[in-house]
Amino acid sequence: MKIVLAGPARSGKSCLLIYNLSNVNCKACFLKGLRYMFSLRVPTIYLQKAEECAGSSRVLPFDFSRGINSLFILYSSGAELFSLLEILNFRVRHSTKNKSYENIGLVVFGILAYTRKEDLMALRVVATPANRELGAEVCQYLGIKMLHVEYSEFSDQEVNVKVRESCAGDIVAVIGGTHMPEKNAFYLGHTSLALRQARVRKVMNVIPYLFYARADKNDETESGVYGTALGAQFAINVICQGLPDEVLLMDIHAGQLQGFFPAHIRTQKLYAGIVSVPYIQDRLDRGNTVIASPDEGSFKRTLAYAKYLGLNEKHVAVFTKARKKANEVDPASVRVIGPALQGQKVWFIDDIVDTGGTIKYAACKADNEGAASVSLYATHPVLSGRAVQTLDESPLVEFVTTNSIPKKPEELRTERLKITVLSHGRLISEAIKRMYEEKPLNDLILSTQK
Questions:
Q1: How many CB atoms lie within 10 A of CB 327?
Q2: pLDDT by residue (tens digit) across 128-175?
């Protein structure tokens, strides 16, 4: 009577448990061994009869190199094995209690899959081409393998999505940002539709960056303008055509965007502060720091960051500006409301950096006011056109952002400016796990707004 673990005994890796149940006194030790294996999140059980391995140097005919995360059991009494699994409260697929277990053979038992709510056995994750690296990181944190979905394009740039792995009855999280929406928004929607065709139980869209988020209201105060398209409403309607059951948004431009989703689609949001605040906090000089908003729209977000960093309103400033037209700021219109910036280390907080014009002129204004240093944190690095060069030419000393929109190293190459990219992988993986287990995200949300 012994338990043998072969291979790396880590979460998400292939493991081997060999056990002989001929001695009924082994039950307690057997249960202990099983519980240990289940704590490693092993999703699949394969069975081998003890007498069929006698005198064989190769215990099991399974290929570990394929990355199958499995639990293998060597048994002698199938009936007793099944009763023990029932004691552990597992639901068995492809099997009935009245079946004759003495003639199970090598793999006739097939895959004996089990489901426990506290485990992630029915959870699958797929990432669209928009966020493949982030998706791989999430899978690593969750200890699961990414669902095999094939993406391709036709000659006319239409996208084609095919699910290449069985996922019927599973809950699938689709990680897909919608930057470059002419392609990525369709990848997200088509993936959700393809999963519906694959008969999944639930589709959860995880959207690190929501396109058209800034087009969330009508602005008819401008002379000669009689109507403005609500681009955010149109964008959300496109996402909903994929028929998701739940949607998770990351640091959206305005909270009221959730109201554009229909009532039957549960929508939740995360704040990137749980990732960014610790980074800023480690570099904070409390007595000589000002947390600043580059424009009026980010003031509420800036106040939340200041409070979490332990700074009161005396350390918060807001910059105002006027635009000549879209994406073009009037430099002479930039003003500062708040404390004096002389000798202060200024941290600008924003959700999106597009062309970099707003932050450039705000940074120049702070530098002219005598700031000791000027840094920027922005969650979503849209960085269109010459944005990186614009930031590099500004007085900024550091630009901190995240991987909500993936950027290649050459796209972030600068001559002077330090650019730091933080990852959402751990935060998103924890959120997906809670959504799968039907637990609230309050802890993840409140921790960014203390």
A1: 13
A2: 999 999 999 999 999 899 999 999 999 988 999 999 998 888 899 999
Smallest CA-to-CA distance from 169 within 122, 238, 208 is with 122
Q: 404: helix, coil or strand?
A: coil
* Residue 125 near residue 146 (C-beta atoms within 8 A): yes
Please state the pTM of the whole predicted model.
0.71
* CB-CB contact of 377 with 400 (8 Å): yes
- Give 115's pLDDT tier (boundaries 50, 70, 90): very low
In tens, the pLDDT along 378-402 reads 999 999 999 999 999 999 999 999 9
Q: How are strands ordered across the β-sheet holding 15-18?
A: 4-6, 15-18, 70-75, 44-49, 112-113
Instruction: Classify domain 274-422 by CATH architecture.
Output: 3-Layer(aba) Sandwich (3.40)
Q: What is the pLDDT of residues 8-48, one digit of tens each?
A: 333 444 444 444 444 444 555 555 555 555 555 555 555 55
Domain boundaries, the chain: 4-113, 123-272+427-443, 274-422
Dihedral angle computed from the Cα positions of residues 178, 183, 189 and 194, in that order, rounded to the nearest 10 degrees: -140
Per the document, the length of the chain is 450
Calpha distance 350→139 (Å, rounded): 29
Element (H, E) at 80: helix 78-87
Instruction: Please determine whether the domains at 123-272+427-443 and 274-422 fall in the same fold group of CATH.
Output: yes
Q: For residue 286, which amino acid is it?
A: R
Burial class (CB in 10 A: 0-12, 13-18, 19+), 40: middle
- Report the CATH fold assignment for 123-272+427-443: Rossmann fold (3.40.50)
Residues catalogued as catalytic: 321
